[in-house]
């Protein structure tokens, strides 16, 4: 959705905003590109306790700054104490900022970018790896579904607002575990039509919900309840549909906004028919807060298993050796400095022992991310002087 019309409003807001005290502008290197993000850190965050993380993804032609105001989770984060990361998509051939979720519009590895960004943030901040979620508007909703399919070893649950999937990606989706899904969509959405868009192979919302209910082994018939029509002047109403009974307590939930447009319910910005009977941000957080990654699989094994890996010597001067009793192949090791900047990537040949050269490193603390099948390990390594 084009949200350029917000620029005047954003200019006024930014003049007096104090969010910069808690908002970090950052970049990382991923896939040979410099990628941008905003990170909102609530005042309640101390670093002493692991907290959830929400990815909040902008729509097509929009940006992370616009998304931060349009789909504003910050007041909720201030009380619930979670971090919000708002990445930027790249510019496509038409000059529009986007996520690579459609056919032929890009060759950018956005799933890889989200994984790299998550690694960077987890190496720097005290993030609960069992409570990492993704939501997004329109193209950002499409991207959240891509993460549910391709990054479900890291993303616990997703919520899409006015998004869907293209048919080929839905056909190829085979998550290794049930992924709780929420879809919020207006029946009068002219950008991503509720009943699908065959020309773009956009899947209809009913078909999308039925497929995800099947993937999660939910009951095929949802429970439907009306949302109280608290605002009679917004031009639309809503109902809530819940597919229950899924594996490990997973559900698929849908807010059907009857007469609603391509908009974010509850937003302060009315750019079309925007439902004001409920807040999408509040409902999404309520949905996310039910789920943890280690409760959505048969093994119930936490994703971060640092106790199976050791780094020695630590502190290190010229090198350290990584060792583990876990014999699963190591896919990749990423090393980040204390600012979350990627310093080194290693693709080891064996698991018996992995030596990492540190003689050229600056003195400081480094985060070591070890990626294996179905698990990611974080170690902290201290580099000392000679």
Number of helices: 8
In helices, the fraction of residues equals: 10-25%
Strand elements, count = 19
What's the end-to-end separation, in Å?
55 Å
Sequence of secondary-structure elements: HEEEHHEEEHEHEHEHEEEHEEEEEEE
Mean pLDDT, all residues = 91
Q: Beta fraction of the residues? A: 25-35%
* Unreliable runs: 1-21, 301-306
Description:
This protein has 386 residues and is of the alpha/beta class. The radius of gyration is 21 Å and the shape is elongated. 44% of the residues are buried. The protein is 20% helix and 30% strand. The longest helix has 15 residues, at 110-124. The strands form 4 sheets. A 10-stranded mixed β-sheet has the order 1-2-4-3-7-8-9-12-11-10, with helices on both faces.
